[in-house]
Amino acid sequence: MNFIDEFRNKSLITNILDNIQAISTKAVTFMEVCGGHTHAILKNGIRELLPSNIELLSGPGCPVCVTARDFIDKAIALSREPGIIITTFGDMLRVPGSHSTLAKEKALGQDIRMVYSSQEALTIAATESDKKVIFLGIGFETTAPTSAAAILSAEKQNINNFFLLSSHKIMPPAMAALIEDNIPINGYICPGHVTSITGTDIYLPIVEKYQVGCVVSGFEPLDILQTIYMLTKQQENQQVLLENQYRRVVKKAGNLKAKSLMETVFEKCSANWRGLGELPASGLKIREQFSQFDAEKNFTLNVPPPLEEKGCICGLILKGLKKPSECPLFKSQCTPANPVGACMVSHEGACAAYYQYR
Fold first, then answer.
1. Residues with Cβ < 8 Å from 323, sequence gap 6 or more?
2. pLDDT for 2
3. Structural domain includes residue 214
4. Which of 25, 68, 273, 339 is found 20 to 30 A from 284 (Cα to Cα)?
5. What is the C-alpha to C-alpha distance for residues 127 and 210, in angstroms, rounded to an integer?
């Protein structure tokens, strides 16, 4: 299967749905921990196709959504400092801070620029050497290597006005935290993009320590349904396995070059997740040898503690405890045009996906 249409073939999808129905007898709950999966599941109506005893939960898989409000407040405060250019991916512009957003600050005249990559931010730093350029590093193991590459390029090219404000996170600690918080999860639909970098073994502690099955999944309807079939089969056979459905992309060893970049520039640290709080060894901070590029160490700011929006249940949604439709602000005060919570900003956020497809 080399073409997208084959992964959306109706007869193949009907066949795998029949197979799921044929083996499924237990009430089970599977959680996807990738915003791309959340979007695909809702867009393709996968929940409605499944037997009623199989429940899907959306977890903390959207990097924009899990970025804590204190990080946004810090980025806004930095944007107000003279001589600073903030560079960021487009979704981050609209994520609410305690009192403002980067988009509002840009409208007020702060130099905040949307970029498509960390290398683009580095180019801005190279061409505007009289300014200090800060790139907002968000995302999981998928985007962290590109931030690492930008720092190594800055060092090589002697670009001393480039800085990274890191909010990079790694997925397994959040998956473990959800289990330890007694969220009812019988199996994880694991993120294909992340695992293409890390390799499959990062989920072994989830399988071995917590006895929760993990299947790495692609993003097309047939990928996701096959993953659900594999998790269902594990449950019915009383097995706990680490399996790879996305074999056409994900390899056991992952991307060795990308992992080397991450390990060279970053080390693990405690990180604050929206909804999950402070999780040990769940973030990536810049190693001391590259501290000249670390915005945390080169800019001193007195940022007040963050204020959360009353009524927003984004944190509970990220933990799988609530659905977006249960939020009192959903579709009334909180919409994609006027997001109150981070889950309504990115198209990978559960609230934005529910708004569009439900």
1. 317, 350, 354
2. 61
3. no
4. 339
5. 50
